[in-house]
Amino acid sequence: MPDVALRGVRWLAQQSPDFFVLEHGVFKTAAQAQSLIKTRTELANARVLMRKTDAQGGLFFVITGPFRSQERAQNYKVRENLPPQIQVRKVSDVLQESVKAAPSRP
Question: Who has the most CB within 10 Å: 35, 61, 100, 101?
Fold first, then answer.
């Protein structure tokens, strides 16, 4: 697991499970996720996480937040004129599907 994704999941685990984040995109590599962050000013404080999957290596996704309510997250999307495909996700749900640590080697 790349360090950037490990740092992202550690950060998210410190947030309230009842808070919300925005998911800005899903990528095959951590480098692609980081590239999005570098090209968008509204993603200056974004985090990269790794999603649990059956595929080798998993998928990486970019999140911002946290927001205390779904309404605040939606208001931020409108205010920043973000694309409609950006999802509002509950922190507890995102954590549940995120890789928490590097897999142990036999």
Answer: 61
